[in-house]
Structures are given as structure tokens and as C-alpha cells.
Design brief:
Layout lengths: L5 E9 L6 H9 L6 E2 L12 E2 L13 H4 L4 H17 L12 E6 L5 H14 L8 H5 L3 H10 L5 E2 L7 H14 L5 E8 L4 H9 L29 E9 H6 L6 E10 L10 H14 L8 E3 L6 H15 L7 E3 L2 H4 L6 H15 L1 E2 L24 E2 L4 E8 L3 E8 L2
Parallel strand pairs: 4-5, 4-6, 9-10, 9-13
Antiparallel strand pairs: 1-7, 1-8, 2-3, 6-7, 8-14, 11-12, 13-14
Protein name: 3-oxoacyl-[acyl-carrier-protein] synthase 2
Pfam family, one: Ketoacyl-synt_C
InterPro entries: 3-oxoacyl-ACP_synth-2 (IPR017568), Beta-ketoacyl_synthase (IPR000794), Ketoacyl_synth_AS (IPR018201), Ketoacyl_synth_C (IPR014031), Ketoacyl_synth_N (IPR014030), PKS_Beta-ketoAc_synthase_dom (IPR020841), Thiolase-like (IPR016039)
Length: 413
């Protein structure tokens, strides 16, 4: 059977650069970094003491303080972004909305790590009686979708994919397929993360994966630059409302872009070290699913984490997937400003890709002052200044531990 068309009608955004879509997008275009010294806990004993923290976030704007106390921060971010997206799409104004045909797929790469850490300390100090009755539901990854479904009365599919840093992209792509094959008419989909804690940062620091540029946080995330020395942890959530095209048109919805392709692959190589062939195959699968040729793509929102190996590897993957056309691509890493949101990265970066298509502009990759061409990082990375340009088709890449890869393809309407 022919697949139904899927369009984006709502966006919700919580990140280090802003707690709504408009603020976040404006700060990205201005090249403003959201990275600074860690304030959430005392990070002085860690070799990395910087992160992209969400600032001035008030969960009481979305749910009651009583309900908020029953769940971890990643759930708060996911709920907030989801409710923003639903409001942006105007779903609450659709009088005849069939809520049995509306689903939610919002995941997280790590989930309730701060709550787990906090509860573990409490148990060590005071015994099992210190475990609260909401500890389990407060830290489970699928509870973002559970809460959103309950809050809005959505009775379609409700779940959350977990695939490390590819989570957000996988949730969006899989949700789109729910619509394409008739299991839902509308899906609220994306990813969230809130793992900036001593255990979370300490774990990545122990792997020597994080930047140690503690004296200058705003320049620490520098994809494809010679001085890059690791990624910077971020937090937040990015959520989309995906809708069947005819359903959206019938109700007069604003359409940001069409999601025309989704591709996945596995490196089958190593749990943490990437290979170029796996990501390239994921991109190729996405282009095949979109039924487009490589030379039809203008813009790539790259995974671009600012690690020495990862950045060069992704560049090689793009060269494999796009061939000679890779030199004509505009490749941007918004992680230079947000840091790496882990399971939330694919969600916020899908939003940035959609807005690039919708507004015909690429955000910059900041802190790129000495491009690492010796390592093969020789593409056009939109260094330091946003660029107005024609973008008919954009892709968004996400790669995760275990060698899991996901690519989304968005088309201008």
C-alpha cells in the first residue's frame, strides 16, 4: 500500500539556549552559547566542570508543584516541550479530534539518573524506608509519554524508544511510520534528557569523553575545530507534533515541513567507537526512504559532538553517503551552542532542521576558528555566522552508543 504523507504542525523546545522555540531559534541564529559552569551541584572534583544547563525553567507553568515532585527532571522537560508543541499545533482547538487516533512517542537516553542517584544516597544513609512511592514511576523513561497521554487524553500508541543519543530521532521517525501505515493520525514525538548530575557527568568524564575547557565554557564545544577536546553535556527536550497531511490540511493547520524520510542502521562495530560506514548507511537508507537523490539535499544538521574522532568520522560518513555532492552541502552543528542533549539531541535538532527549512537559513557552527582539515574535516560547516540560503531538503543526523544511527529527512512545503 502507499504510505500516507507526514507533516510537522507543532514544535516544543526546552534547551540551554531557550525555554521556547522562538527564544531558542533566535539565540541559535545569533550564535549565542548556552554553556557555562555547572550550578546544579559541586563539580569541583570532576575534570569537566561545565555543561549546558537549562536556565530559569518553571515546571509549574505546565503541571502542579505536587505532580512535579513525583517525577524527575527529564520528565518535566519532556512534558513542557510536548505541551508547547500541542499548543503550537492548535490541537486543543480541534473540536472533533479523535483522541483514539492521537499517540505519543517521547523517549530519553538515560532517564531519571538524578532521582536514582539521589535515592541511592538516601538509601545508603537511612535505609530502604527512604525510598519514596513515586521513585519508580518518577524515573521510568516511558513516563513522559504516559503523563502527556493522561494530561491530554490521547488514547493512541503511547511509548518511548531508548537508543542512547539517537533516541529523539528514532522516536520521531518511528512515530512518523505509525502515521504512514495508518496506526495514528497524529503523533507527539521527540526526546528529553536531564542527566546533568555528579553521576551522569562523572560517568562521561571517566570515559574521557567531555571537554575540559573549564576556564572558557562558551568556547568549549567546537565541532570540527582543531582545538576540540570532547563534548559538553546539555539537557532539555525537543518535541514535534506529526500529522497526516490530509488531516492537517482539513483543519487548516500551519505546516512547517514534510517529514519525507527516515533511515536507521547499526555500526555492528564497537559500543562507543564509531565507524563511518554505519552512519553513512543510515543516511543512505533515509534518502532511499524519501525517494530522493543525494544531490537534492542542501543542509545537514550534523551529530557534530566536538569529539576528535566523532567529528572526523561523521565527515567521512557524509562523503560516503553523498559522494562529490558532500562538498556542496552546508553542514551545521548546533551542539556548538547547546552542548549535547544526549537522548534529547535528536528532538531539538529536528526542530532546528525544520526551522532551517521553514525560514531558509542555516544557524552557525560557533567556535570554529581553525578548521581541522588535516583530519579530513574539510566541508562547509557554516563557521561562526548564520547564513541565509535556499534549503529545499534538510537532514538531521543522530548517532548513539552501541553503534545505533538515525537520520531524518525534512522537505520544504
Amino acid at each position: 500500500m502507499s504510505k500516507r504523507r507526514v507533516v510537522v504542525t507543532g514544535l516544543g523546545h526546552i534547551s540551554p539556549v531557550g525555554n521556547d522555540v522562538a527564544t531558542g531559534w533566535a539565540n541559535l541564529l545569533a550564535g549565542k552559547s548556552g554553556i557555562g559552569k555547572v550550578t546544579r551541584f559541586d563539580a569541583s572534583e570532576l575534570n569537566c566542570q561545565i555543561a549546558g544547563e537549562v536556565k530559569d525553567f518553571d515546571i509549574s507553568a505546565y503541571i502542579s508543584p505536587k505532580e512535579a515532585r513525583r517525577s524527575d527532571l527529564f520528565i518535566h522537560y519532556g512534558i513542557a516541550a510536548a505541551l508547547q508543541a500541542v499548543a503550537d499545533a492548535g490541537l486543543d482547538d480541534v473540536a472533533d479530534l479523535d483522541k483514539t487516533r492521537v499517540g505519543v512517542n517521547i523517549g530519553s537516553g538515560i532517564g531519571g539518573l538524578p532521582l536514582i542517584e539521589e535515592t541511592g544516597v538516601a538509601v545508603q544513609q537511612g535505609g530502604a524506608r527512604k525510598i519514596g512511592p513515586f521513585f519508580i514511576p518518577g524515573s521510568l523513561i516511558n513516563l513522559i509519554a504516559g503523563h502527556v497521554s493522561i494530561l491530554k487524553g490521547y488514547q493512541g500508541p503511547s511509548y518511548g524508544i531508548v537508543s542512547a543519543c539517537t533516541t529523539g530521532a528514532h522516536c520521531i521517525g518511528d512515530a512518523a511510520r505509525m502515521i504512514q501505515y495508518g496506526d495514528a493520525d497524529v503523533m507527539v514525538a521527540g526526546g528529553a534528557e536531564g542527566a546533568i548530575s555528579k553521576l551522569g557527568m562523572g560517568g562521561f568524564a571517566a570515559m574521557k569523553a567531555l571537554s575540559t575547557r573549564n576556564d572558557d565554557p562558551e568556547t568549549a564545544s567546537r565541532p570540527w575545530d582543531k582545538g576540540r577536546d570532547g563534548f559538553v553535556m546539555g539537557e532539555g527536550a525537543g518535541v514535534l507534533v506529526l500529522e497526516e497531511y490530509e488531516h492537517a490540511v482539513k483543519r487548516g493547520a500551519r505546516i512547517y515541513a514534510e517529514l519525507i524520510g527516515f533511515g536507521m542502521s547499526s555500526d555492528a562495530h564497537h559500543i562507543t567507537a564509531p565507524s563511518a560506514e554505519g552512519p553513512a548507511r543510515g543516511v543512505q537508507n533515509a534518502l532511499r526512504d524519501a525517494r530522493i537523490n543525494p544531490d537534492q539535499v542542501q543542509y545537514v544538521n550534523a551529530h557534530g559532538t566536538s569529539t576528535p574522532l566523532g567529528d572526523a568520522n561523521e565527515t567521512n560518513a557524509l562523503k560516503i553517503a553523498f559522494g562529490d555532492h558532500a562538498k556542496k552541502l552546508v553542514v551545521n552543528s548546533t551542539k556548538s551552542m547547546t552542548g549535547h542533549l544526549l537522548g534529547g539531541a535528536g528532538g531539538v535538532e529536528a526542530i532546528y532542521s525544520i526551522l532551517a527549512v521553514y525560514n531558509q537559513v542555516s544557524p552557525p557552527t560557533i567556535n570554529l576558528h581553525e578548521q581541522d582539515v588535516e583530519s579530513g574535516c574539510d566541508l562547509d560547516y557554516v563557521a561562526n555566522t548564520a547564513r541565509d540560503m535556499q534549503i529545499d531538503i534538510a537532514i538531521s543526523n543522530s548517532f548513539g552508543f552501541g553503534g545505533t544511527n538515525g537520520t531524518l529527512v525534512f522537505k520544504r512545503m
